[in-house]
Amino acid sequence: MDELDTPILDNHLHLDPVNGRGVEAAEAFADHGGTHLNVLNKPSWDLVEVATDEGIFRECFDLTVEVTEAASERLSGRAWPVLGVHPALISQLVDDGYTPAQARDIMQTGLDVATEYVAEGPALAIKSGRPHYEVDDAIWDASNEVMRYAFDVAAEVGCAVQLHTEGGEDFTEVAEWAEAEGLPRQQVVKHFSGGNVCGPIKSVIANTDDLRDAIETGDPFLMETDYIDDPDRPGAVLGPKTVPRRVRWLLDEGYDEAVRRAHVETPARVYGIDTTLA
Known about the structure:
The chain is α/β, with parallel strands linked by helices. Helix content is 45%, strand content 15%. It starts with 8 loop residues before the first strand and ends in a 7-residue tail after the last helix.
């Protein structure tokens, strides 16, 4: 397929080196014009086991770093690991007999390890959030404490935080929490956003309607597939070819400025990366 004269970043994609396609999915992205990837670690129980200590987090993160480095070799640009703790871990731990406070402490340990990977070089950013499903007040409060801790440690190392949260559009309070912990709101990214999310930077799921909404706001935004790399759910949430295809559509529709905003200007603003360089 002919190359497009623009960088193309998928801001949130999973590569599963244990059970999924792994590097093959990155090759499909590249074959359709994709140049850069932010690769999120899958939940620990999908790769290794339910994380209960530092060692399990490290094993999960190391697998993600290795597959990301291999994917990077297939791209004309590069891939970066984004490492952290899936917010659903708290439910896994509570179901296994831990209290919400104990689960919170385990998850904060995972965030400490993730920021170490940022400080020492292989990782670009960290991931945190809170459950996107109904939970009781104790789990909700503990989850918010984990998320605020993520903002705190990210501020210490100067990196962005990708958030996995419930749906909705108004996350102004979350952005304010980040600022209270010393992290600029421009380094808070709402993963799986619709086009009208406010507060953090929105990482818009690459559906045409959501992208049109994001463009109309004039706000900074990123694009993502949230590709899960699960052999039992091929193409979920969106396949790895989707972002390059949507970029072609945007350019055909005359949205050249929006493409530059999503794939050059916003990545530079959020992560301090230059996607115009290989």
